Amino acid sequence: MRLFAVHRYIGRSAAEAPAALRMAFALCALTLALSSHALAQAVPVDAGAARHVAIAARIAGDDSRVRLVMDFERKPGFSLRYLGNPDRVVVDLPETVFAFPEDALEPRGLVSSVRYGTSGEGRARMVFGLASPARIDLVETDGEAGGATQKLVFDAVAVDREAFSAQIAASDWTDAAQEAPGAPTAPVSDTLTIVIDAGHGGIDGGAEGPAGSMEKHVTLAFAEAFKAALEAEEGIKVAMTRTDDRFLSLSARVRLAREQQADLLVSLHADSINVKSLRGATVYTLSDKASDALAQSLADQQSGEDTIVGAKLENAPEAVAAILVDLARTETRVFSTGLAQQVLNSFEGQVKLINNPLRHAGFRVLQAPDVPSILVEMGYLSNPEDEKLLTDAAWREKTAALLAQSVQNYRKTILAGRR
Prior knowledge:
By secondary structure, the chain is of the alpha/beta class. The protein folds into 2 domains: 19-177, Immunoglobulin-like, CATH 2.60.40.3500; 192-418, Aminopeptidase (3-Layer(aba) Sandwich). The chain is 31% helix and 25% strand. It has 11 helices and 15 strands. It has helices at residues 19-31, 161-170, 176-179, 215-231, 250-259, 293-308, 318-322, 324-327, 330-347, 384-390, 393-418; strands at 52-61, 65-72, 79-83, 88-94, 96-98, 111-118, 123-130, 134-140, 150-158, 192-198, 236-240, 264-269, 281-286, 353-361, 373-377. The chain has a 6-stranded mixed sheet, with helices on both faces. The chain is elongated.
């Protein structure tokens, strides 16, 4: 059972995307076998029906009232419930592809955050964080006269704390599977499955230090130490993309993480750069746009390794591969950033960090759409001092233990939020 399977179908609006891209998006959505969301169990709506497509969305308002408008290809059923601590509204929908631009639902006024994605087989969910207590009024569900779309319109209206508490008390969180006589319910596991990815390997040796240390050997040794440290922690299951000196394409590493139903992927590296004086650890998360020139350079360098050995993105048509970055967003990226921050918190004062150690770029190994992923640059082999540390067994064990503790801290944070 996956503890943190977070994911969201994200795309461009139907009007903006060419036909080939829309077809590719649909194919990708159909082939990604995504499991249930960890927020809560949802009530199935229109279970078994063909999936809905939300093709446009907009939000407007202020601190007293906010209106949300969504355009669907056909009218969806829905259910609405309230949660406190923090205050939020949950809208459950039938299976839905959210095909509008990511910035279409920027939070404003009463609505402090917006999240959406799949929440189990045949289901989707939207979660609206509230800046202050509010109720949700359904305004209309009819499309415009002669139009080809159906509108779903909600108004968030400010209310007092007592009224909001009453809404929470009236919310029904009983899962449909529990309502059916004799229907088994799946247990919720507290075990986190983490895949450790030792960067490079085989013909792809990676960076080489002044003293001759090869990145592929450094990363594998650290991965083994990291695995041992994680296995000493409670509630963590560990797998590795490689356990020996073999080549794996970047896409194969992503595929292995998904096959393991990983809750987290941590990719380990020790690259080389032209600035020999630069040293220290860095943690990277996925982004369409690099945070800086260094992040872009490293992402280009690692993506280029597959090209050298003739590797291609596996098990995905070219058009689908082109939109994987668009899919790997939102909740998955939020969880990735949360893990990255935990790593930096654990490293602070214990492991040397570069300036602005939390960075992001389009690393292909981080592009699993439903697996929160980070890339940890443990140091730079191009720097002699870093090379000495990276090849020192005592430093490796100490740093691996800190990294394992950050994963455990992340797990505990997620479990606390889930409860």
